[in-house]
Amino acid sequence: MAAPTIPEIAKELGLSNTTVADALRGTGRVATSTRERVKRYAESAGYRANRSARQLRTGSAEAVGLYIGSDVRNMPFYMPFTFGVMEELANRGLDTTLISHAPANSTAVQVGGLLVIDALPDDPVLESLLRSGVPLVSAGRLASADSPAISSISIDYPSTIKAAFDLLDAKGGHRPALLAPEPRDPLAWSEQIVATYHAVCSERGVRPLVLRLPSYATNERLREALDTVQADGSFDSLFFSWQDIADRSHALLLDRQGEVPTWATATLIDSRVDTHYPYDVLVNLDARRFGVSAAELLATVMERPEEAGSHLTHPAQVTSGS
Questions:
Q1: Which CATH number covers residue 193?
Q2: In a domain, 235, yes or no
Q3: Cβ contacts of residue 6 below 8 Å, gap of 6+?
Q4: Which of 15, 32, 50, 306 is most exposed, with minimal Cβ within 10 Å?
């Protein structure tokens, strides 16, 4: 059983997070009886003091673990995201350790904080990290994490993608086909995009077409998907769920046909700087800034455990392309 966190102790005792944190630290204006009650409960429940908070306050070095879901970590988005995390943590005197497998047991997690992005619900690594009792922040929504102690930062995909489809429609893309990754859990970013696409198609009374591809599809699979759209003949636009597949589609079509069909196109991008082909609509996720913001949130939770359970939104920009 995982050691309780400050928010969990606060909920059990009917106190605020701040009161519990002050009682355990020996700070703040907390009644002696309340302080003793908190300490007794914490000791009996196996509470472990947060090393990371103390070390952040004293400025000494501490490692933070970063875990990226194994089925998506080869997607280009996660490189600038990781650089953003490492840059922000380094500015705070913290090292970043990339986690690739589950520790032998939850107590073997030798980091002061954990950052998880896009892990599947049944991932054994995620399950082990959730049991560790170490401050944890999820970048994106976790279907398997219902603890009030889990903090998160996520992109509002439904409203963002709806805005992108509306802009695509204004540019002539009235009947879009969607290229999306293979199915994941319902809260995954890819499934939020697919759900929004179906809602848009239903609202407009148009037939949907979702073509599912591996996170790094072979050129053969990608050609098959593009051929399916062209052969159908009823779609006037393409929406790409990630930038790599969009750029490679452009390259394949140019190589084979000498030109790109007159589809209106939209794609999610990792950053505006790395856009290599013209698109009508861009959804800029700013992966590096997302990583910076996720690291900022984790550092806050590590330093002030009473902030655990907070949820932030990372803004994505929908703009016209070139």
A1: 3.40.50.2300
A2: yes
A3: 17, 20, 21, 24, 149, 305, 306, 308
A4: 32
